Amino acid sequence: MAKESDKFAYYPLFRSGLPPPARRFAGLLPYNFSGGHNDAEQIPIDALIEASVAVLKRHGSRLAIYNLGHGPLGYEGLRDVVATKLAKRRGIACSRDDILITAGSTQGLNLLNQIFLQPGDTVVFEEFSYANAIRDMRQLGVTIVSAPLDSGGLEIDALDSILGNLRDRRVHPKYIYTIPTIQNPTGTILSLDRRHKLLSLAEKFQTVVIEDECYSNLVWADDVPPSLYGLNPKHVIHVGSLSKSLAPALRLGFIVADWQVLSQAIACKTDGGTGALEQMVAAEYFFDSFDSHIAGQTRALESKLGSLVEALQREFGTSIEFHPPEGGTFIWAKLPPPIDVRKLIQPAANAGIAFNPGPEWSCGDDPATSHLRLCFALPTAEQIQKGIAELARICFDLFGIPERGTNASRRIDS
Amino acid sequence: MAKESDKFAYYPLFRSGLPPPARRFAGLLPYNFSGGHNDAEQIPIDALIEASVAVLKRHGSRLAIYNLGHGPLGYEGLRDVVATKLAKRRGIACSRDDILITAGSTQGLNLLNQIFLQPGDTVVFEEFSYANAIRDMRQLGVTIVSAPLDSGGLEIDALDSILGNLRDRRVHPKYIYTIPTIQNPTGTILSLDRRHKLLSLAEKFQTVVIEDECYSNLVWADDVPPSLYGLNPKHVIHVGSLSKSLAPALRLGFIVADWQVLSQAIACKTDGGTGALEQMVAAEYFFDSFDSHIAGQTRALESKLGSLVEALQREFGTSIEFHPPEGGTFIWAKLPPPIDVRKLIQPAANAGIAFNPGPEWSCGDDPATSHLRLCFALPTAEQIQKGIAELARICFDLFGIPERGTNASRRIDS
C-alpha cells in the first residue's frame, strides 16, 4: 500500500505503558507442544452440526436481540447446563442467576482483574502459574507474592506464613489466585484436606480466593475433590471454561460468584454480550452429551499423555524429570540445570517444534529456566514421537544433553 | 443461598473508580424502541443452518486450535469476505492482513481506546454520538471536545476552528471519533465533499480519525460516498460491524488499520481470539449472500421506518421534530423543550415501553434533554403503532403535550 515514508506515525499518540506490539503471525509449527489447543480428532463435528441445526431452528430468530434477550449474564440454556454440570461434578449448588457466561475463562479472569486491581496492588499466586495471568499482573503493575507448590499442589503452611507476613507488613492482598484441579503448569490436584485448609486461611485473613478450574473436567480419576466454591462459596470466585472441554476456538467460559462480584463484572463487560451462536450450540450439545463427551475426550488425552511420556523417556532417559499430570493437556518437565530452555526456543522452532518455555510460567524464586511445558493434546501420536526425538537431538547438539535415552547412547549413535 | 450477614464484603477490595454495578436483568419490555437490536423476521435461519452444516463439515476439526490456526487477526475466510465487501461497497483496497476481526465493533472501539487513551487525554467527538462511546470516555477520565452536527453531519468549518483552538492551547487530541455513514443518533450521511475536507483537517492537524461504520451497510440509497479510509487511509482507522448487518447477538466486527495500530490491538486483545464458530458461519453465509441479504434487510428496515414515521406523525403531530434517517435502525426525535425525557423513562417503562433518552447520546453544549432515540428494527409494525400511541398518551398525561396528533385533538379525545 503506502510507502513507509508516507505513513502517519501513530506511535507518538499511543498511551504509555503498552505491551509490546504483536509480530506478524507466521503459522503454526508442525510439532506444536505449546498453548492450550485440543485434540482435533475429538471435535464432535456431526453432533455439533446436529446441535446447530436444532438450536437455530428453535431459537434462531432470537439472534436479532442482544444477548438473545436473556440479559448480560448470557443464554439461559447454557447457564442451566453449566449449573447442572457444576452441581454434579464440582459440588456447587447454584442457579443460572449466579453464573456469568464469558468469552472463555480468559475474559472471566480479565473482568476480575478489572474489578479488583490497580497499580501497586498485591496478589498471591502459586509459584508456577498460568503464563497469561502472570503477564497480565506485570502489565497492570501489580505485585505478585508467590506461594510454593509441591507434588500435592499449594503448600498450605507456607501460604499461612506468607499471608501472615503480608499482614505484618499491612499489605492486604486483593486475592489468592489458585488452580486447584490440574494445576497449570504442574498438573497436580489439591487434596480435600488442603482445600478445607485453604478456605480456612481465606477466612482467617479475610481475603478472596479466585479458583481457576478451566481444566477441571479433564481428569483421569473419578474421585476429584469438590471445587473450593462447592465446599464454601463465602470467599471464593469460581472461574471455569467450556472452551477447554469442547474446543478452544469457541470462546466460552463462566464466572460463578456472589452478586456483588457479578454485578460489577457485568458493568465492566462492555462487549455487547458473549457470542450467542457459540453459547446456543454448546448448550444444545452439552445438554445430554456432557458426560459422554468428557469421557471420550479424557480417554484420548490420557492416551496421548502415554505417548508423550514414552517418547520423553525413550529420547531423554534420566535427563528429564516430570510427574505425569493427573489430567489436562500438558507435562511440566525439567531438564538438567545447566540448560536454559530459552536458548532452545529458536533452534527448536527452526526444526518445526514449539513448546512453552518455563520462565513464562514462573512468578516465584525459582525462575524455571530449565523447565518446559509440553502440551500433548494437539500433536498426533506420530508427531509426538518425531517431535520429541528431534527436540532431544537439538538439545544434545546444543548442550550435550541428553547423553542417552532409555535404550541407546546418543553419543555413540551420532 | 447464604444469609446476607454471612456474606463476605467484597466492596472494600474492589479498585477505586469502578462503574456503577449492574442491576438484575428484568427482561425486555414489549414495546422496545431502545438499543441496537435487529428485525427478528430478517434472521436468515435456513441459510444460517445451511452455512453451519457446510462449514462445520469442512473445517470443524480446526475448532481444536485457537483462532482455527489462522492467527490472532481471525478466520481467513471471514477476513477475505470482509475485504471483498469493503472493496465493493466502501471503496477500500485492503487484504486480509489489514483486517482484525473483533467481537463486535464494540471490542474494536475498546481496543483502540486501550491503545490511545489515558486519563487526562482529549478526544474530539460529534456533539451527539454513540452513548457507549461517550460513557467509556467518562469512565476513562478522558475529556471530550464536541464538534457540531447539522443535517449533513459533521460541520467541517466548525471542526477546523475547534482543532485550531486546541492547537493554540497545545492540546493534541488523540483522535477524532466520527460516524460518517448513518451518524448515530442523527442518522445522516456525510457528503463526499465533507469527507475530503475532514481528511484534509486530519492532515493539517496531524491527528487520527476513527471512523465507526457499523451501520454503513444499512442505507436506503445506492450512492453512498466511499468510507474515509477508502478515500485516503493515511490518518484513518476504520471500524466496522457484521453484527449489525446480520444479528447483534453474534459478536462480529472488524478494524482495518495500519499495522502500527493492528499489531498493538492484537497485543491488547487478550481474549484468546474472537469466537470461531460465529466467524465461520458468517463467512460461509456472506460469501455469496451478502448483497441479497443486505438488500432484503434494508427493505424491511425502511418499511419499519415508514411505520414509525407514520405513528409519530399521527400521535405526536407537530409536537415532535425529526429528520427520517438515511438508513440504520433509529430516529433521533425532539419533543418541545419543556419536556425532559428523563421524566418519561419510568412511566413509559411501567407501560412496557423502552426508548433511549437523549442525554446519554449528547456530549456537547446541547444536553438533548428533550431528545429521544427511537429504534424501529426490533418491534413489529403493530408494536410500533401501539407503543407510540401509548407513549404519546403518557407524554400528554405528564406534560400536556402532544395536545393533538395529525387528525385529532388529544384534549377532546381524553
Explain how this protein is built:
Two copies of one chain form a homodimer. In chain A, helix 4 links the parallel strand 3 and strand 4 (143-147). The radius of gyration of chain A is 22 Å and the shape is globular. The first copy, chain A, is built from twelve helices and 13 strands. The longest helix of chain A is centred in the C-terminal third of the chain and has 41 residues, at 276-316. The first copy, chain A, is an alpha/beta fold. The first copy, chain A, has two domains: 27-42 and 292-413, Alpha-Beta Complex (Aspartate Aminotransferase, domain 1); 45-289, 3-Layer(aba) Sandwich (Aspartate Aminotransferase, domain 2). In chain A, helix 3 (104-116) crosses helix 8 (259-268) and helix 5 packs parallel to helix 6 (192-205). In chain A, the strands form three sheets. In chain A, strands 2-10-9-8-7-3-4 form a seven-stranded mixed sheet, sandwiched between helices. Chains A and B meet through helix 1, helix 3, helix 8 and helix 9 of A and helix 1, helix 3, helix 8 and helix 9 of B.
- Give the strand line-up of the largest sheet of chain A: 2-10-9-8-7-3-4
Let me know the number of strands of chain A.
13
Kindly state the mean pLDDT of chain A as a whole number? 95
Cα distance, first to last residue of chain A? Answer: 50 Å
**In CATH, what is the class of the largest domain in chain A?**
Alpha Beta
CATH topology assignment of the largest domain in chain A: Aspartate Aminotransferase, domain 2
> Whole-number radius of gyration of chain A?
22 Å
Total number of helical segments of chain A?
A: 12
Question: Stretches of chain A where pLDDT falls below 50 for ≥5 residues?
Answer: none
Greatest interface: A-B, 105 and 105 residues
- Under the CATH scheme, the architecture of the largest domain in chain A is 3-Layer(aba) Sandwich
Topology order of chain A in helix (H) and strand (E) letters: EHHEHEHEEEHEHEHEEHHEHEEHH
